[in-house]
Amino acid sequence: MASRNRAAASSTFxxxxxxxxxxxxxxxxxxxxxxxxxxxxxxxxxxTALFSIPAASAKGLTISLADAFFTAMSTxxxxxxxxxxxxxxxxxxxxxxxxxxxxxxxxxxxTLASILGLVISKRLGLRAKLMAAGDSNPLRAHGGxxxxxxxxxxxxVGQLLATVALSTLIIEVSLAILLYPLMVIAGVDPWxxxxxxxYYAAMSFTNTGFTPNPGGIAPFADDYLFLTVLxxxxxxxxxxxxxxxxxxxxxxxxxxWSLHAKLTVITxxxxxxxxxxxxxxxxxxxxxxxxxxxxxDTTFQAFFLSAMTRSGGFAVVDIGELNGSSLLVGSMLxxxxxxxxxxxxxxxxTTLAVLALAVWSEARGRQTVEAFGRRIPxxxxxVAISVVAWGATIVALSAIIIAQITKAPISHVLFDVISxxxxxGLSTGLTQELPDSGVYVxxxxxxxxxxxxxxxxxxxxxxARSQLYSLPVERPIVG
Length: 479
Fold this sequence. Notes:
Elements: H1 2-30, H2 32-52, H3 65-76, H4 86-89, H5 92-107, H6 109-121, H7 126-136, H8 157-185, H9 190-205, H10 224-239, H11 241-250, H12 259-283, H13 295-312, H14 324-336, H15 349-363, E1 369-371, E2 374-376, H16 378-406, H17 410-421, H18 436-451, H19 453-460
Antiparallel strand pairs: 1-2
Subcellular location: Cell membrane
Protein name: TrkH family potassium uptake protein
GO molecular function, one term: monoatomic cation transmembrane transporter activity
């Protein structure tokens, strides 16, 4: 009799699980954007609860709800901003939560779900492919037919998902192997380095920037090999999985790269060198940052800072001591961020590239926007404009609210707000001084930045209706 009851209970539980799974799958198929928002929100609430338990704290005490919520948001959104001291606040269990959270957030919930489905079913159906394409290409965040400009073709999604999982594992393991001996040589205990090396590897590739040791990367400020490995990890994480996929297939055949890969790599390199030149010019005589360094140190640290403001989050110099002009340059670099479908945030480098090409085409009087022998369709340009408009609006509103709450210098407020929106993790020191109200505002800003402006807009917008007619044309005066 007892066995029958257990069997009936098991059957009931299985049916409920199937029903819940079926409902989630249907919701994900109808609106991948809303599905992403729901899953991200659920994960953040879950990790907030986990960070709140005494076992996660090094002192065995419960931290405040605001700190737990902000840490969970920063972890899942792979931001790196923090309101607590990361090296002293968390127990080994707490550090493990941080490590796990950034891995989940970096890979993307939809991609992770598709990978699990691929493992279970051994194949991807059309719906799963559409969902995966939605995560790997910003243009698929809204409804409508698959357009000619999408980054990854549906037939390649299965390969892309395998690339995401394998590249994450291989790159992080490789980075950890490179970092371990460098940390031991620098004086870190071999047993401590055994877990700190994978931690740093994960934080660099996911572009998070959390550090597990006192002083962060300050003890390695003169270790250029260590800092170079971190920059390599940040670069690989910021270019995006579609680009990694393209490079893996055609690494020595640039002509066979997709337009997306070309625009991402070229724009990333340009911003890297331009940012370094700007920081070098603006900070070489600042005694609190680069002024006390020799020419080689100044040059290297300028490149390192340029790489980290793209979404890396690590810092050797005190960000709060940068000149106001440098903070503005850093804010601009952070707002752009990294590549689409990457672990970086921001409006994405391809968005900037498309807008720059559109301006150039307009200046030359061309009817279409072209690059590398390809035409960029008008809907891609509209998405780029929407992304910038939404991002600027979110940053402006958040900066106004936090400036009113804290009365802090606007340059510091704007820097930390953009750092949160673009999921960078650099801070002038303002974030740790925020009251609870400011903490929640910045946390929401991080969420909106990580989920993505296009995805967020699609999630809250009503279902689009087809318009079967065209209105008369009238041209307002612009400019």
